Amino acid sequence: MDIVKASKKLSELDIQITIDNIVVDILWFRVMDLNGVWSINRHTHSSFEFHFVSSGACIVVLDDGQFVAREGEFYVTAPGIYHEQKSIGNGHYVEYSINCDFKKMKMDNGFSEADNILKVLSSASCIPIKDCYNAIEYFNLALEEADNQKIGFYNNIKCLASIIITMATRAISKNSVVTYNVPLKAKEDDYRFTMIEKFIEDNISSNITTVDIANYMHLSDKQVCRIVRKKTGGSTKSLINSIKLKKAKDLLKNTGLSIKEIANVLGFSSEYYFNQFFKREEGYPPGVYRNNVKNV
Fold first, then answer.
1. Taking the complete model, does pTM exceed 0.70, yes or no?
2. Model pLDDT for residues 236-249, shown as the tens digit of each residue
3. Are 135 and 74 spatial neighbours (Cβ–Cβ below 8 Å)?
């Protein structure tokens, strides 16, 4: 891969990613490939810039000191940090950089992992940090995606940008364990009941049994019955019937399908058995229900 060519393609992309309640504008995403003696004069940004040293080393001069950034290390210049870069000797230097502007949005709920990432980055010192989570490798993948431009490359690059930022933040935080609570799925039985309902809805045209559900869920039929009874107070058969009835009402009300066609859609062997089912569950035949709802 020609990294200069790939870097040009990557830098041309307009990339914006959203992490929780924070929109990240990627202002630049590129490679700096230098030979000989060079320097970048003192400057600052209103954004965060991640500098990953892929090859060689450089001197970074801050207003309160300086350090050497070597291959396999990175450093972050936060907004307002003045810095200058200089070559060491006249060797070959390659730096991967990604410059990001973080904009907070209004939160829909109380959780934001991105807030914690931004907090770490905002308080981080501008010092050389070992790239212990291989952000540079993810950068290489982004370059390859930009260079090859196969289907899905743009969204892959957006994902990789998010990973690069996260891996750098993780390295800065020095393996600290998170202390915030993340959203969790509902309790196991709630989640499994949702899966049971979904399976019935997806297979409404079949003559579903408790055993069918148990096989799909990798549970025993007794476990399925226990989960359903705990949530509904009734049997699995009653749940299947209630879902069939709900679907029947929807088809009667919102489609022009004949009652025979609806019977077929719901897996009944004949219109007669569908009529019997509907009358037993609702108290009157499906034709009467359809007339009633049309006259409302």
1. no
2. 999 999 999 999 99
3. yes
